[in-house]
Amino acid sequence: MERARTEAALSKSEERLRLGAQVAQFGLWDWNVSTGEVTWSDEHFLMQGYAVGEVAPSYEAWAARVHPDDIAETEAALAHACETRTEFVHEFRSLHPDGSMHWLSARGRYFYDEAGLPVRMIGAMLETTERRRWGDRQQVLMAELQHRTRNILSVVGAMYERTRSDSPDLATLDAKYADRLAALARVQGLLSRLEESERITFDELIRMELVAMGAVDAQGRGDRVVLDGPDGVRMRSSTVQTLALALHELGTNAHKYGALSQAGGRLRVRWHLQPSHRPPRLRIEWTESGVDMSRSGAKPAGAGYGRELIECALPYQLDAETRYELGADGVRCIIELPVSES
Q: Is the bond preceding 279 in cis, omega lying within 30 degrees of 0?
């Protein structure tokens, strides 16, 4: 009777352990080092890409699923734990038959006989694939943040120096610089809302700038503006800030002196993808018409910041090809630059 009660209590305890391991998603193993006999929990089978009961648990079956690049280090960690009588704590990759790779964090302990020989090892594993992916993603995001921070500081510094040299007094400097900073802030707002794999598209970029100037509505419609090009052309993140500044300068000049400042003025922005290039390139055509070029400011003397940005900075920084012309009735600007491969 006493034996039956003991066996029942043991069975109940084992059931609680099994259910607890299922809830916690632990894979358990019990290895009789002397005989080679191994017992796995159901979760252990699944973590290594086996169906439950698909194989007889063994050291060889476990090792067969450890990633080839990790097996030597993992076995060395096992040997070290055995020899030093310390806890085995190790993270390794398991390669499943479907080609998927899974990270497993294992912790176990050896037990020894009176002669000091290892006779048993008990341990548990936890899948850490998602944690690893999150950690990798965090590293990518941190690198991207550092890259963007360096870029934006460089752009802000160069923009300030150029604006200062063009400004006859502090009031003009303040107004111009604030306007250009606002353009950068709009781009940063777009970038900050993107997921890791997403990109800003050119139609978003041009609409954002012209909406800010009141030239078009949120859908890109305006009385004197035509936007003509495909949606969804993805821009490289590294190009967005400088291109946005160039579009801002074109828009500002059009708003103050060109097609958006005169009743008869018209602006047409056309763009199309050139997929035959590697990487693919986007051709942007900014064409103003109906502008009285004899009016003050319509035909600037010398090269301003916007023109310098387009003719010098874009080719140097973005591998762009540009052309800026003052035509008989308005500005015409062509920009060709690489875009995202996808």
A: yes
Q: Which of 47, 2, 52, 57 lies closest to 27, judged by CA?
A: 47
pTM above 0.85, yes or no: no
Q: Which residues on neighbouring strands pair with residue 274, listed in sequence order?
A: 281
Task: Measure CA 38 to chain center.
Answer: 43
Per-residue pLDDT of the chain (342 residues; tens, 9 = 90+): 555 565 555 455 455 545 445 544 678 889 999 899 999 988 899 999 999 999 999 999 999 999 999 999 999 999 999 999 999 999 999 999 998 999 999 999 999 999 999 999 999 888 888 888 887 767 765 665 565 566 566 656 666 776 787 788 888 888 877 777 777 677 666 666 555 557 888 998 888 888 877 778 878 888 899 999 999 898 887 788 888 888 888 988 888 888 988 888 999 999 999 877 788 999 999 999 999 887 755 555 445 778 888 898 889 888 999 999 988 889 999 999 998 876
Catalogue all structural domains in the chain, each as residue range(s) with its CATH number: 2-127 (3.30.450.20), 132-338 (3.30.565.10)
